[in-house]
Design a protein that fits this description.
The chain is mainly alpha-helical. It has helices spanning about 1-20, 25-55, 65-90, 95-100, 115-140, 140-170, 175-195, 200-230, 235-255, and strands at about 55-60, 60.
Length: about 260
């Protein structure tokens, strides 16, 4: 049953990626919406679930919040390390090599493709955990499984949208973005199927959600949203961001 339900997440993820591909001529709107979706997923979905599942305190601070901050700092550290490496190897790059790099080695605006692939890989890992969450919920009961599955399937549109956007934003070729999208779509099905072999402790799931939420928030606040408003600081971009948050709020409310 869990695997069958996870197929809904598979198709919803692909649909989200397809939408992201179709609106490339409105890139600033895509990024504004993606940033809003990511912010909504973190603040309204991941963090509340993490707080509930991993509620133990460490020196007066909930474990989920500590991991949330840790995920934010880890994403910042990875991005800075890649930026330093890029600067060290690109100080004497000629104009011809820069033009060649834009075709695959380096993203426009100096962005590093590996950052996009790393972020997309994190989204795949998150989707895998979504599938495990579906399977674990069905282990508790059919009612619980249905509720969790509804939440996962509906917000996997945002996952697919963000996975494709994150990969392509950093200058990766379309083939790589599509490959990451397919991997993200398959991940919940694999995760749900794997629960027939083990039972996932609730605290471990909550800890992961906290850490991943911090990393995702960093990408939204430090990368996606600034890029969305860089060339098109339009009111429509801001409205797309608000719409993304509102959509996740609606999804969470329906699934509650």
């Amino acid at each position: 049953m869990a695997v069958f339900v996870a197929l809904g997440a598979f198709f919803m993820t692909l649909f989200g990626g397809w939408v992201a591909q179709r609106v490339t001529d409105r890139r600033h709107l895509v990024l504004g919406l993606a940033g809003g979706l990511m912010l909504g997923v973190v603040g309204l979905d991941l963090l509340p679930e993490a707080m509930e599942a991993a509620g133990d305190d460490l020196y007066g601070v909930p474990q989920a919040l500590l991991l949330f901050v840790g995920g934010f700092l880890a994403a910042h550290l990875v991005e800075r390390l890649l930026a330093v490496r890029r600067a060290a190897h690109g100080a004497h790059v000629t104009a011809a090599r820069s033009a060649s790099a834009r075709g695959g080695g380096r993203a426009a605006g100096g962005r590093t493709p590996q950052v996009g692939l790393t972020a997309a890989a994190a989204m795949v890992g998150h989707s895998l955990m979504d599938g495990i969450a579906i399977g674990a919920a069905f282990q508790v009961g059919e009612g619980m499984g249905t509720t969790v599955a509804l939440a996962v399937v509906t917000h996997d549109f945002a996952d697919g949208f963000n996975t494709y956007t994150l990969t392509s934003l950093y200058g990766n070729k379309r083939s790589k973005a599509v490959a990451m999208l397919i991997a993200d779509a398959l991940a919940p099905v694999i995760g749900a199927a794997s629960t027939s072999l083990f039972t996932l402790p609730e605290e471990l799931l909550g800890s992961y959600l906290g850490f991943f939420g911090g990393a995702l928030l960093y990408l939204a606040a430090a990368e996606i949203l600034p890029e969305a408003h860089h060339e098109h600081p339009a009111r429509s971009t801001l409205l797309c961001t608000v719409a993304g948050v509102a959509f996740i709020w609606l999804v969470v409310g329906v699934a509650a």
